[in-house]
Design brief:
Residues 4-120 form the SET domain. Pfam families: SET (PF00856). This is SET domain-containing protein. The structure is a single chain. The chain is of the alpha+beta class. The protein contains 10 helices and 8 strands. It has a 3-stranded antiparallel beta sheet with strand order 1-7-6, with no helix packed on it. A 3-stranded antiparallel beta sheet has the order 2-4-3. Strands 5-8 form a two-stranded parallel ribbon. The chain binds S-adenosylmethionine.
């Protein structure tokens, strides 16, 4: 699913403008939207707050970066309908180039099954997750994992810790030029991910392996994984071609070096 922002507000504007002025401007911007979009924005209101516009923006928008570190708050009315779960079946990513929010399924989602995303990075530990959801979103998480047995919750927690430590070990090993070690860890990352039903995004995984094999000087595997990454990004039909272009440029470089080496 691809969604476009109905409202996009810069953080400095939110922080530096007097509240009544800020509300008036945002309300005016919303009221000037095409009728259908305006209707979708107001349908997000729960009607219980004195400051309706603040309440709509506060519990439905996402923080996104546009340009050089320009942080904004974007209201995406379709994506805003998706509830949070600590063990989600989809995730969202923002395309800066097209100003769109893309919701991507982690796995096949059955008809009638609810789509969930995590509002917090997946490897965040449970206490931090709950605090973030309460502080930033104002709710106590009632997802299936938060209502699951202690054993299920503990297993999920162990998985998060493992993924977090693996990711930092991969980066450390890469920076210290232990490329083979980083490769083994990356492969483990894929296996470990399956424990909790949220595999890493495969083209990302293939990009990582292509980079590591390249650094190690293994051009056969670097080429193989670079090609898989390019195919993955293309098949995914990503709204953000930057990723595809980056992987294609990498593959091109590897192909050129292969040609020279012949
Ligand atoms: C972006 S909206 C999600 C869609 C919203 N439920 C709707 O019907 O339009 C975020 C709000 O949904 C509710 N919500 C989302 N995920 C939740 C969860 N896991 N547990 C409890 N409330 C949740 C909270 O009230 C939160 O402020």
């Amino acid at each position: 699913m691809v969604d476009v922002p109905a409202v996009l507000v810069s953080i400095p504007f939110l922080a530096d403008t007097k509240p009544h002025h800020r509300r008036r401007i945002i309300k005016q911007a919303i009221n000037q939207l095409p009728e259908e979009t305006r209707r979708r924005v107001y349908s997000l209101s729960r009607g219980s707050s004195k400051y309706e516009v603040d309440a709509i923006m506060g519990s439905n928008s996402n923080t996104i970066t546009v340009g050089e570190d320009e942080v904004h708050v974007g209201l995406f009315t379709e994506a805003a309908r998706i509830n949070h779960a600590c063990r989600p079946n989809a995730y969202y990513r923002f395309s800066e180039r097209r100003l769109t929010m893309e919701v991507v399924a982690f796995r096949a989602i059955q008809p009638g099954e609810e789509i969930f995303m995590s509002y917090v990075p997946l490897e965040t530990p449970v206490e931090e997750r709950r605090k973030y959801l309460q502080d930033h979103w104002g709710f106590n998480c009632a997802c299936s994992l938060c209502r699951a047995s202690k054993l299920d919750a503990d297993n999920s927690e162990a998985w998060r810790e493992k993924v977090k430590s693996l990711k930092s070990t991969i980066l450390d090993a890469r920076s210290q030029e232990y490329y083979q070690h980083a490769i083994v860890m990356t492969e483990e990352w894929l296996q470990v991910s399956e424990w909790d039903m949220t595999p890493p995004f495969m083209p990302d995984y293939h990009d990582t392996l292509a980079d590591l094999y390249f650094l190690k000087g293994d051009m056969v595997n670097a080429t193989r994984y670079a090609r898989m990454a390019v195919d993955g990004w293309a098949r995914l039909g990503s709204v953000d071609e930057e990723q595809l272009e980056r992987s294609a440029a990498f593959l091109h470089r590897v192909d050129e070096l292969n040609e020279k080496g012949r």
